[in-house]
């Protein structure tokens, strides 16, 4: 049995606060800010509802990652969702994004290092994009809670260029496993 290396499948960004992002062959990321030219880049929060609440909060959502396996699963349920459609910057394959603890470092390609900060908290905009899709990415956990499957958020610890096809090296923190929570 062969095991594939974690890798970048697709990249996307958008300079406006639209739900979906435009696919690109590469993106540049800046330490402490995010994807160059993306509306969510910045040292402080850029998500419009969070800006209204407190514009001085640190931006823990600089780069959004989604696993391609989720898109595959959605396609099997009749939802034709392509990379960038759900607003993610990076679509990955062969890495269990949702199982990573907070503080995990993702070395992408030869330059970039991202640090995982938490889960994306999917909202009604997903249903506006495709009715019924929210129920696919927010599922019951069997204990009265929900599993948020719409990807993870991260901050840029080392900037550079990310290209489609780049490999991803996962380094978990040496401290106690801290499960991901919405950020």
Automatic annotation (TrEMBL):
Residues 22-171 form the MOSC domain. It comes from Cellulosimicrobium arenosum. Signal peptide: none annotated. The lineage of its organism: Bacteria, Bacillati, Actinomycetota, Actinomycetes, Micrococcales. This is MOSC domain-containing protein. It comes from the Bacteria. One of its GO terms (molecular function) is pyridoxal phosphate binding. Transmembrane segments: none annotated. InterPro entries: MoCF_Sase_C (IPR005302), MOSC_domain (IPR052716), Pyrv_Knase-like_insert_dom_sf (IPR011037). It holds the Pfam family MOSC.
């Amino acid at each position: 049995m062969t095991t594939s290396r974690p890798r970048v499948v697709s990249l996307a960004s958008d300079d406006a606060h639209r739900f979906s992002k435009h696919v690109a062959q590469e993106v540049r990321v800046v330490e402490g800010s995010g994807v160059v030219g993306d509306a969510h880049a910045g040292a402080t929060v850029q998500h419009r509802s969070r800006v209204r609440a407190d514009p001085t909060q640190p931006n823990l959502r600089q780069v959004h990652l989604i696993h391609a396996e989720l898109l595959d699963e959605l396609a099997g349920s009749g939802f034709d969702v392509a990379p960038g459609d759900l607003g993610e910057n990076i679509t990955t394959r062969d890495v269990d994004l949702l199982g990573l603890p907070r503080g995990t470092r993702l070395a992408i390609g030869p330059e970039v290092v991202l640090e995982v900060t938490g889960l994306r908290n999917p909202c009604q905009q997903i249903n506006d994009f495709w009715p019924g899709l929210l129920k696919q990415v927010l599922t019951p956990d069997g204990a009265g809670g929900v599993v948020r499957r719409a990807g993870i958020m991260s901050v840029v610890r080392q900037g550079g260029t990310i290209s489609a096809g780049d490999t991803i090296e996962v380094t978990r923190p040496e401290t106690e496993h801290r499960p991901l929570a919405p950020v």
